[in-house]
Each structure stands twice: as structure tokens, then as C-alpha cells.
Amino acid sequence: MSDVAGNANFICDQGEHWVKYFQWRDSRDEFVVVEPPATMQIRDPRRKMLYEMDDFSGIQFPRDGDLLLEIADNVTAGFFPGQYEYDLFVYSSGRRVRLLEGNFTVRERISLPSGINRP
Questions:
Q1: Which residues form the domain of 26?
Q2: pLDDT of 10-65, one tens digit each?
Q3: Residues 6 or more apart from 69 whose CB is under 8 A from it?
Q4: Closest by CA position to 21, among listed 48, 54, 58
Q5: Is residue 84 part of a domain?
Q6: What is the reported pTM?
């Protein structure tokens, strides 16, 4: 198993219930078991934290090799539009592994919920 992270870029709209589901498979196309604890940090280019999640708040392991990342719409509504970076760490076979890294783009919401006026 390689210690090199895979790369995946994510896009999130403000106010979106953001969910990403994926599977980790090895070079033989077999599921790789991932275990808690897991952490994902989203940071701006100056390394300031935008959001952090773990297996108690947003990261789930539905089955062997599966990961589910989730950020509630009321949380993403508070994200400032822009370009961020993230990395995702999990445990596999007792070792901490950086599974993914990449860009996390937040797009500005155009439509606002009824009753909200933009200044």
C-alpha cells in the first residue's frame, strides 16, 4: 500500500448539503479496509482552517472500503466563496494514511432562501 495520497478536487455550493461517497480499492481492485479515526481539514491558501471533520462529525464508514463525507447545508451556508485545499487521513491496517488531497472550491450561492436579502 502506497503512502502517496490520491488527488480529487471537490466543488461545494454555499448552502448545499454536501455529500461525497467513494470506495478505496487496491491495485487488484479489492476493497481496502479503512478504520477510524479519520480527519479531514479544509484550509485556505494561508493555512487558515475553513472546516474540520472527523468520524464523529461528517466522516462515516458504511462498509469495508467505503467512505462517506458529509457537511450540512447550514454549515456550508457560512463558507466564504473561494479556493481552498484539503487532505483526508484515515487508518488502514493500523497505519495512518493520507488517503486524499486536493482543491476544495466553494461557489457563491446565487439564489437565496425566501426572506433573505443580500446587503
A1: 6-107
A2: 999 999 999 999 888 888 888 888 888 999 999 999 999 999 999 999 999 888 77
A3: 18, 19, 20, 21, 40, 53, 58, 59, 88
A4: 58
A5: yes
A6: 0.84
